[in-house]
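Exam review. A common question shows you a sequence with its structure tokens and asks you to describe the fold in words. Practice with the pair below. Do the first one on your own.
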Amino acid sequence: MTLTSEAVRQVPVVLLRLLVVVLVRETAHPRYQSTEHLLPQYDFIIVGGGSAGCVMAARLSEISHWKILLIEAGGTPPPESYIPALNFLLFQGDADWKFHAAPQQGALLAYESMLPYPRGRGIGGSSTINSMIYVRGNRRDFDNWEAMGNQGWSFDHVHRYFLKLEGYRETSNHTGKYYGRDGPQALEGKRWSSPAAHAFLRAGEQLGYSIIDPNGPEQIGFSLIDLTGRDGMRWSAAEGYLRPALSNRPNLHVVMNAHVAKIHFNEDNRAVAVTYLQDNKERRVAATREVVLSAGAIGTPHLLLLSGVGPAEHLAHHHIPVVRDLPGVGQNLQDHPAVAGLIWTTNKHSSFSPLRLLNPVHLHRYVQDRQGPFTTPVGTEGNAWFPSETGDPGWPDIQLAFVSTTPAIDFGLTSRQGLGFREEVYLDYFSEVFGQEGFSLAPFLTRPRSRGSVTLASHHPMHMPHINLNFLSHPQDVTDLVKGIRHALEVGGTPALQEHGATFNKRLLRACAAHGGHTQKYWECFVRHMATTSYHASGTCKMGPSHDSLSVVDHRLRVRGVAGLRVVDASVMPLIVSVNTNAATLMIAERAADFIKEEWRSRRRRSPAKGAPARNKSQGLSSDSR
């Protein structure tokens, strides 16, 4: 039996999944269920039950006389999703769409030709499988959105929506003074950190940086992460928004394991219904006010294209009748390229080892007190941001993630395939440090210049779309990531980390060794081989002014050239936020819900419908949503 055989690879996975029974036995998790008897029509149909879709379902159902339907392609969150440290079991599992990115020219050269591209599938979406990192974004990200022609999206406009969604629970990590306290999205600081993670903070201080709260006034500095969690457990958007709404709102219906295949338009190009596939049957349901697409930066453009909204030439190629020629649908795909493979070995017990999850002491501590390593996702423990060398120094172009383990720790049993490394590259580059504890420093490019696309592979709704990341197609992206590598090497060499025996893996990547040891050319080659996705897909239904030929939605997220159709998810970002994307996605949905309420109330005041019911006070998750 070889090292990479599927049987061997599954041994630790099966063992850890068995432990879930022990870990969650005393916790009553919500059982999301499809509504038994659906109506033939609803006021609003929301497609996608991920982060944005859960927010939209909860907020729109606050209007008690509106009938809301949420349609989700997946099912309920798997039990292991509630345990933060078991996040690595979720990729390529039942809660993952199992997308793959297409082969690249000049990038991703160390990875399999079809790189795994995880996206959450099921109630809660990617907030159910992600690393739970909560950071809003630099205020300049949002000011720039407005400068690009999107009125009302500056930081001063969106800040109150972050405060509205946040339910921050103060811990000893920092004061939490920058956060909202009463929102549905529970947030808390880390309950457990590796010794090396604390050394990472000291390393920043030794280099002259401050320890910061990344959601504070400025972003330059070092920090540990905040988590979308409560009491040591994952708190997805489904937990925060959807579960409370379903508990007492008969006007909200949910249908799961239902794959939306098409949006239907009438002769006036108004979205009036959707068709979905469930149990091998095709069903159709009508929307009297709007269809809201919250299927994510991959799923939303895919569904628009299947429905005839997108570049006319591309639609014609797949024999799809054109409803509206919108060249920008599926274009402008952005992600944060992150360089893998910069690893340091450490003294024993300084960093994180998966073997800790098999320790009965930690199991007992988690079950009894919700403390210890099970309370934090495997992966990034801290981040650093450095002043930009060009332009505004307060708007960093590099985020450095401190990951308290390495891809070599498990001998490739799960990490190689999960990350998508080609076997020969993985074995050659990492074999000398197999099984050794250590950490990785991964530079992220926060504002990449390269743009990819999501297009149709076929006109069949069940076929996966074609995802072209187009990484590193702009040469400046390579230059900037090499700069990020220099930051990583500087941090890794600090006395604070040397105290833990931090030793850099100096083995040269075989494909780049001809350029010599750690020269500029070597690192440029290293970036083209080892840079990979950070799973932050966004931008594929760009928000922009009418004169922007690639804009898909206006500043109130209405799809251009049609009626009754809105996009609410990360795909509307005109430029990706310069941090992890989940927090901004929640904010976008909170803002969009208010747009819808304002517009439909305004229409009602202007032309009340005959026999319309009296206006009711909304029953909200918070009073300011009324």
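Now try the second one, then compare your answer with the model answer below.
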Amino acid sequence: MLDKNTLKPIIERSHARCKKLGVDINQVASKTVISGFELQNKLSYNKDLILTAKPYMEQLNEFVKGSSFFALLTDGEGCILNALGDDEILSEAFEMKMIPGAYMNEENIGTNAMAIIIKEKVPIQMSGKEHYIKAYHKWTCSAAPIKDIYGNVIGILNLTGYMEDAHLHTLGMVIAASNAIEEMLKVKQYSKTSCMTQRQMKLVFDSIPVGIITTDVNGKVLSANKKAVEMFGYIEYELKRKSLKDLVENWEKIKKAIYSGKSYCEKDQLIYGLNNKILFDITAHPAYNSDENIMEITFIFQEVKKPRKLANKLEEGRAIYTFDKIVTENQDFRNIIQYAKKISDSKSTILITGESGTGKELFAQSIHNYSRRMDEPFVALNCGAIPKELIEAELFGYEEGSFTGAKKGGSNGKFEIANGGTIFLDEIGEMPLEMQTKLLRVIQEGMITRIGSSKSMYVDVRVIAATNKNLRREVEENRFRKDLYYRLNVLPLNLPPLRKRIEDIVPLTRYFMKSLSKSLNKKEVEIPDEYIQHLINYNWPGNVRELENVVELIINTENFPVMTSSQHNEMQVDQNWLSQTSSESLKLEEIEKDHLIKVLNICKGNVSQAAKTLGIRRNTLYNKINKYNLN
């Protein structure tokens, strides 16, 4: 730890370097903020550091909770890998682009504690004008390096708060946490180094918040830390008499990977405890002797949280879309994306409006994945696809015996499954009035009650709702509760139709052509310029979803349909749409029938969902089903 006399010349030298580098004292954000695949690669490369540091960052955050602090973890180059802290100050930091992917070195953001550590490799606390840029003068930063067993700085742990709230002991806490992280990282190297005594190893081994078991090459347990003993339910000496093949479902698969010199990693692996079966995430690493022969295997077990167990069983338990997957060259749409990013970490409800096919769920998933809830469940519910008699059970769950047909043990509702994460209520305008009252209570109080239960439970769920209806008009016509409308519409987000994003038609067409041809295992079809102009001139009542369907039709038939809009605003296909270049004379009805069958199969027979996917009305689809005898 540096004293003030030692610190002063270090900061002066840093300021001089910043001035020479041309760092602007009035800048607010780092000059370099990586994202997308580049950031994913950075996070993947530092996965061990991130996972090891996370519980200590959380513990550090608990110590200072409510005091307006936030913790940052960077790699050895100063790139932010993780951020935790109180909402208010963290939101302030995020607005200044102190987010994962931002570089905090001198070249990019001037003098700060993390930048000093990159140069000096020692813990430091600095405040106010000791920072180079003015935007940081309000803060005190306490930071400590995280070093590998060779003394190289591989990461930096930083705790930042307002200048008046920081104390010298803050740096002490950060140093203690960084030392603990270093010791945790050394555990993975323990079989290759003798720098730690057996007693030190045992203390570190037992302090790790995940289960660790070492075995010989045949799976016989050699050692287990306290967390592993607790997870499996055995007394320590009983666990040491076990073999992993008796405890793990896929022992042969693990052994095969280890024997081939690879590590093994599997999520939601079934483990046989003393009295029950449990789901764990497992990683296994071979340990070598000096002759490079495998001597031991180190297993790391992390128990799957109950909400994740449930969410993983549901298709809607995953959010796969992120903002970087949204294709647009329209400046207004880019502004909407920036607005969506800005509100991602708010606890307030979001109401996404827009025509069918504009990408409402894409935005909901992207908002979830841009927030601190990204590692928690994302649960989607289509309010228009569930009978009104069942929607309460779907949302709030039920107890065993609460009604005829209730399954044994009861059932968790979507809110319970989404606890800690996000629930997406699509087609909220279709929700029955009597359910709207109960939903309003959940949003206001955060409490749910299962059907058949008298007990209420608290859930921490971020609500995002979406509709293609005009909810104001629905309120005026008494089909939607006014109080629920205002409770949902705290953060409104309106998505424009594709006809107002004409410049996006060509890049979207290219994107769908590339992605769909790959997924369909078919070659890309070159689209002539005159047909591109036809796509631009068409008004796209089904929006982006309709454009995707047209591209899929082109890939499958290698011909170009000519679309016209009917008086009902539905897509009509000209009977003479087939290209003259086709090697065979294909019948439109056969193609349409095959396409309908394919879409209905994808939607598992759900007519409402299939009609939306096709961009037509349900009645129109029913007529086509009858026409082609697809019942």
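Model answer, second protein: The chain has four domains: 4-185, 192-304, 311-494, 503-627. The first helix runs from residue 4 to 21. Full marks require stating both points clearly.
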